Every structure is written in structure tokens, then in C-alpha cells.
């Protein structure tokens, strides 16, 4: 268990360390953000400013989505991974690998396609409600160590989706399984309503996470097959 916890901790540190060190041209990030906005407008889904305004008009709702965004991510991820490690070791390996694979792919995308998050586009009416109401989250993830222009894809949502799938599929009680179904939905709403991600970011993050899960599932099936082949070869000798 100590080894696996170490792997996760090192992976998280490397992920944020590398992401923060990626050289990003700010002008390109803002230009790509405009491209995302134009794409959403062309498909009729650029509704984030209007949705966020509804939230801002109701202070308690802004507080709620902020708390979901902050405390529904890493606490949920780490608790779920620990639960999988203790109670469902095989599933743990699959979901751990899905996070590692999608995280690696995400770093490549952040490098090739930097995007400024909505909270930087005040001209559209976006407001950084997380920073307005609490500085804790930005302190925990200081700009110096985090690439502020890594909006696409949203692994903030994608990794929550992976944990939701694990909990919904393996939870022993219906309330736990319900949490697994609801948490990704609430997180998708939170990343958009706090102006940290565009709708397309969430879609891209979810797709990347599911692709990582599919790849991890195939890897987990190949492992036993290789072990059986080695066993058969040893039996022949």
C-alpha cells in the first residue's frame, strides 16, 4: 500500500510540476480561448456567461458551486483511490492507470494548445467567483506552480468522472452509488459556473478520461493473458 500511495503522490507532484513548467505564450492562449468561444457560439452552446450570472445573482448558489469545485475534487479523488486500494485492488490499478494515461495526454495537449480559462475573459462578463469568495484554492495551487493557461481539457472534471464511475459501480450502499452518479454531474456544473472551464473543456476532459479508462482496461486484460502464456511455456519445459 505504501508503494502505491507513493506512486500516486509522485505522479500528482510531477503532473502539476511539469504542467506549471510548460512554457506558455499568453497571446496564443488568449487567441485559442477566442477560438473556443467562437466554436461554442457556432454550435449554440456558448451560454456560460448567462449561466454564471444566474449563480452570481444568488450568493448562496455561488458559494455552493465554489465549495463543490474546491472540495469535491482532490478530497474525492484521494479518498476514492485509497478506498479502491484497500477494498478493490484490481479496480484500483485500472483507475490509477486511467488517471496516469489521461494526465500524460493532457500535458501534451496543454503544451500544444494552451487556452486561457473563462475567468480571464472579463469582457464576456465572466467572474472568478472562486477567488472572489476565498483565496484558499489559489494559495493551495499557486500560479507559480500551475499553468494558468491549461483550460483544455478539464481533467478537474475528467478525473472526477473516473472516480464517479468507480464509486457508482463498486459502492456497497445505494447512497454511495448515488454519490458516484451525482458527483461528476455536480463537478461539471461547478467548473463552468465558477468560470474555470468552458463547456467544451468539460466534454474534452470527460472524453480523454474515458479514453484513458478504455486503454487501462485493455492493459489490465493483457496482463493476465501474458501471465498465462508464460505459465504454459514453463509447463512445457
Helical amount among residues, as a percent range? over 70%
What would you call the shape?
globular
- The tally of helices reads 11
Written as H for each helix and E for each strand, in order along the chain, the element string is: HHHHHHHHHHH
Q: Give the integer mean of the pLDDT values.
A: 86
Unreliable residue stretches: none
Written description of the protein model:
With 237 residues, this protein is an all-alpha fold. It contains 11 helices and no strands.
Q: Could you give the topology of this structure?
A:
Blueprint: H1 2-21, H2 26-43, H3 48-57, H4 59-71, H5 74-87, H6 89-112, H7 129-133, H8 136-140, H9 155-170, H10 174-193, H11 199-236
Task: Give keywords.
237 residues, mainly alpha, 0% strand
Task: Summarize it.
This protein has helices at 2-21, 26-43, 48-57, 59-71, 74-87, 89-112, 129-133, 136-140, 155-170, 174-193, 199-236. It has 237 residues and is mainly α.
Amino acid at each position: 500500500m505504501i508503494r502505491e500511495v507513493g506512486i500516486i503522490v509522485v505522479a500528482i507532484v510531477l503532473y502539476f510540476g511539469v504542467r506549471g513548467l510548460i512554457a506558455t505564450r499568453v497571446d496564443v492562449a488568449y487567441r485559442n480561448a477566442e477560438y473556443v468561444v467562437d466554436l461554442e457560439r457556432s454550435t449554440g452552446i456558448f451560454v456560460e456567461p448567462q449561466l454564471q450570472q444566474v449563480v452570481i445573482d444568488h450568493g448562496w448558489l455561488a458559494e455552493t458551486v465554489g465549495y463543490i469545485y474546491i472540495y469535491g475534487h482532490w478530497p474525492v479523488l484521494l479518498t476514492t483511490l485509497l478506498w479502491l486500494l484497500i477494498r478493490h485492488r484490481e479496480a484500483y490499478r485500472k483507475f490509477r492507470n486511467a488517471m496516469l494515461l489521461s494526465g500524460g495526454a493532457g500535458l501534451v495537449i496543454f503544451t500544444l494548445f494552451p487556452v486561457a480559462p473563462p475567468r480571464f475573459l472579463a469582457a464576456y462578463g465572466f467572474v472568478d467567483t472562486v477567488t472572489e469568495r476565498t483565496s484558499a484554492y489559489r494559495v493551495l495551487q499557486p500560479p507559480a506552480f500551475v499553468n494558468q493557461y491549461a483550460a483544455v481539457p478539464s481533467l478537474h472534471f475528467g478525473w472526477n468522472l473516473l472516480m464517479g464511475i468507480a464509486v457508482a459501480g463498486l459502492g456497497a450502499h445505494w447512497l454511495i452509488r448515488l454519490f458516484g452518479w451525482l458527483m461528476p454531474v455536480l463537478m461539471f456544473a461547478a467548473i463552468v459556473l465558477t468560470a474555470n472551464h468552458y463547456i467544451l473543456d468539460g466534454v474534452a476532459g470527460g472524453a480523454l478520461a474515458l479514453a484513458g479508462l478504455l486503454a487501462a482496461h485493455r492493459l489490465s486484460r493483457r496482463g493476465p493473458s501474458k501471465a498465462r502464456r508464460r505459465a504454459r511455456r514453463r509447463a512445457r519445459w
